[in-house]
Amino acid sequence: MNNTLKFRVNGDDVEVAVPPMARLLDVLRETLGLTGTKEGCGEGECGACSVLVDGVLVNSCLVPVAQVQGGEVLTIEGVALHGAGAGAGAAATPPALHPIQSAFLQCGGAQCGICTPGMVMATVAFLQDSQKGTVTEESIREALSGNLCRCTGYVKIVDAVLAASQGAKP
Amino acid sequence: MQVTQKARVAREGTEVGRDATRKEGAAKLRGEARYVDDVRLPNMIFGVTVRSQVPRGRLCGLTFPQDAGIPWEEFVVVTAADIPGRNAVPLLVDDQPFLAFNIVAHREEPLCLLAHANRALLERARDAVIAHIEPLPAVLTLDEALSGNEIISGSNNDLKSILMEKGDVEGAFSKAGSDPSLTLVEGSYETEAQEQLYIETNGMIASADASTGDVTVQGSMQCPYYIHGALMAAFGFQPGAEDSRARVIQCETGGGFGGKEEYPSLLAVHAALLARKAGRPVKMIYDRGEDMAATTKRHPSRTKHRTLVDGDGKLVAMDVEFWLDGGAYATLSAVVLSRGSLHASGPYECPNVRIRSRALATSHPPHGAFRGFGAPQSLFAIERHMDVVAKACALTPQELRQRNVLRRGSTTASGQKIKEDVALDVLMRMAHEDIRFDERAREYAAHNASPAGLRTRKGLGAATFFHGAGFTGSGEKNLASVAAVDIAPCGSLRILVASTEMGQGAHTILAQMAADAADTEVDAAFVATPDTAHVPDSGPTVASRTTMIVGGLVEKAARALRAELDAGGFLSAGTHADADSFRKAALAAAAQRNVAPEALRQECQYVPPSGLIWDDKTYRGDAYPTFAWACYAAAVSVDLLTYEVTVEAFSAVQDIGKVINPLFAAGQVEGGVVQAIGYALSEKVAWKNGVMSNARLTNYIIPTALDVPRISVRFFEHPKGTPEAQTPKGIGELPMDGVAPALAGALEDALGVSFTRIPILPEDIFQALQAKGNTP
Predict the structure, then answer these.
(1) What ipTM was assigned to the predicted interfaces of this complex?
(2) How far is CA B766 from the centre of its chain?
(3) Of B25, B53, B210, B331, which has the fewest beta carbons less than 10 angstroms from its beta carbon?
(4) Hey, how many other C-beta atoms are within 10 angstroms of the C-beta on B59?
């Protein structure tokens, strides 16, 4: 029943023996222990489980893990490591926050934090695909409309994405 | 001494009033913050709840069918018979069992619990359990409860009733017919249920000590000591002597909004019962559907207003009836009804007021705490009604309100004399300016009259309201909360409170307040994880009370600790200490006394302010120590083809006293307003046979980033040095209160039809326009 699947997560090669139809979300959280990706609804409505697969934003609760065979998955745990703001990598100190994460922190874009990893991933996807200078409040709201937040009313999240868009391109 | 005092005053607000960075923010942004579902304990298995599926009946037994292909011998099964102590959730009235044993009172009633290591098998087993329930007639609507045809609680289905009287209402109304200067205005208003919809569902992990039977629970929660009390009751531990046998630890909590106030007590006991029987840790995480269907929601309500107003537009008499659907058990309905009643006459002065309120039992899953706690319901009614009264008096809604708002020296419906400076008229002006009310009114009139008005209609509305800060009446006095501070091993000031961080920023704000009180930097102060083994009972994290009440206690304790350091010569009084100096001084003080740093502990217990008098029996007196005040204004556009409503602009202006962290305060208002836009325009709980039939994010629609505008938030600032400028009043609930009436008013302005019930969905607008001949 279990198949061995190989793919990359946050730059590292991984090999997992799981049912091919297992949700990518469960493989990340349970098999690989990457619990930064959250489950909010389990049906692709809330976006809390957002990750990037080969650079494309997906709801990991809707992706059978077989679909990422040979692919590259980026989760919240990999964002700081691979961001422009990554530190020198001294093992004892965590890498500096990615500019997007810093912008969320400074702008008050994270409150309870449960939607935050998904919001950050959606922002990573949005900004990597946006030309600098073309980002507007409207385009941000469109880009984040698949990620629900119940705390912020979205204003400070939009502010954070605007601020990040004006900084270094991730 | 004089110099010291001056120096302190000069530096007041070094940390308070600043946008301090969220303490746990970086961990949340890295995905490192640990929520309950992220925790895995060795040997842990999973638990689920088997629920009734019948709205009301008599439980005759449970069958675990052998032909279902379920290896039942592998399962841990817990029923009511396994509860060693009291089978009742301790709250205001102990009427709700942890597990049903005789009567099933609602469709999601927990009947038994199952645990197993294999979650897929667990789900199959949950479906396979057969519950034998003899159905009894259910009470599925407020009207059925009011009719009394089926009595399910007390003698008349009342869970609680309240009578508030001021002046002589009957006497005033008796003059209505004979005095032509008086106008009588009547109205009926309804609000439906609302789901809190925190993005993290409810969840708990419990473990039990095999030798002692002591239990530890960690999970998502607002009120660790409520859960502690529930565990003590369920396991029959002796309060006081055996307090340490139940331990409750808060995990990072992904939103609460009241939905994690009382409900987690039930879930925590469930997990603990399974863990103790299994001899292994048990994790219970609700999926979204279970969380939405089974846990508490905002009480549906109906309010009837009868109002007498004189020729000058002054309120003469208000007669209010306010009804809540409490659901199958009492939970917190009595206090929700109380807050709703105390806000039912709005922020207006009227010499004659009568408020008759009832919370009624129905066969719905129990309704419970939700941000605003009864006030959003009764304030929707009064604010909508004030618009109707204004029309009847040929006044603008603003004029009517300005003539009647509470001011310093006014007396509320409970007879409370307002002793603070109230600037409601200024707030109204600020909100109108902020949204460009008059300018927009002209633009919208022109638009509506133009060809474009055949496609969309635009309108404006506003609501004026207040929110009583902290617990109602003698709540704080009875609670007598305790907060403490000590010194952590690193030398930082450690704040010991049961107040939970659930996104609102409490743990950053309390650190800011403590830092100022200890005259140091916020980096030198932090809040310890709420853990009943280590923190005193500072009360539940509810009622917008944390900053105002608990913050005040923390300040006092931190000030006392600083004074001790000063007295010992480790710091000099009146001198600001940077974080490093503070830590060094605190550790030096401990070393010199040859004690561990945590021995430098200071506690502070709540003492009610003098001069507050409240009578629970007559509902008279000082209902709240202070109030937050607000005026919210909304601009909407309605698509006449799809009946979709777009909120074009929203302005939220409020007086919340001292703002501790402006960034967080604005975040609370923005989030609350958007949650309330959902309440008003999209979030509809569809009831079917006593349960929410749309318990999914697919068809229970909360606002996305695209559905709402940028909320404009402004805080009124009292003159520096006044008491009003120095007191924080709480901000959590206020933004929930005034949004729906402002939007309903704007829709009426746009379409010329009156909306008296929320949510107002496109189909409601369609029907209202049809009834009016399909033209706005």
Answers:
(1) 0.96
(2) 32
(3) B210
(4) 22
Q: What span, in angstroms and rounded, lies between the C-alpha atoms of B736 and B284?
A: 30
Whether B697 sits inside 8 A of A148 (CB atoms) is yes
Contact list in B for residue A145 (CB cut-off 8 A) is 704-706
How many residues appear in chain A? 170
Are B629 and B712 in the same domain?
A: yes
CA pair distance B144, B707, nearest whole angstrom: 36
What strands, in cross-sheet order, belong to the sheet with B525-527? B525-527, B493-496, B482-487, B602-605
Tally of domains within chain B:
3
* Closest CA relative to residue B253, chosen from B607, B530, B47, B508: B530
Q: Is the pLDDT of residue B773 over 90?
A: no
Is the CB of B705 less than 8 angstroms away from the CB of A34? no
- A136 and A89 belong to one structural domain: yes
Q: Which two tokens stand for residue B357?
A: 């309120």
Contacts of B198 in chain A (CB under 8 A): 112, 114, 150
The residue from B576, B605, B634 where one domain ends is B605
At residue B303, the 3 state secondary structure works out as strand
Residues from chain B contacting residue A101 (CB–CB below 8 Å): 26, 29-30
Interatomic CA distance for residues B384 and B258, integer angstroms:
25
Per DSSP bridges, beta strands B614-615 and B645-655 are unpaired
Q: What is the pLDDT of residues A3-46, one digit of tens each?
A: 899 999 999 999 999 999 999 999 999 999 999 999 999 999 99
Could you list the residue range(s) of the whole structural domain that residue B430 is in?
Answer: 301-471+621-771
Strands (DSSP E) found in B252-296? 282-285
For residues B403 and B496, membership in a common domain is answered with no
Inter-chain CB proximity A152 and B670 less than 8 Å? yes
Which bin fits B292, alpha (ψ -120 to 50), beta or left (φ > 0)?
alpha
Which residues from chain A sit within 8 angstroms of residue B257, using beta carbons? 150
In this prediction, residues B101-105 reach a mean pLDDT of 96
* A95: three-class secondary structure by DSSP: coil
Q: Provide the whole-model pTM.
A: 0.97
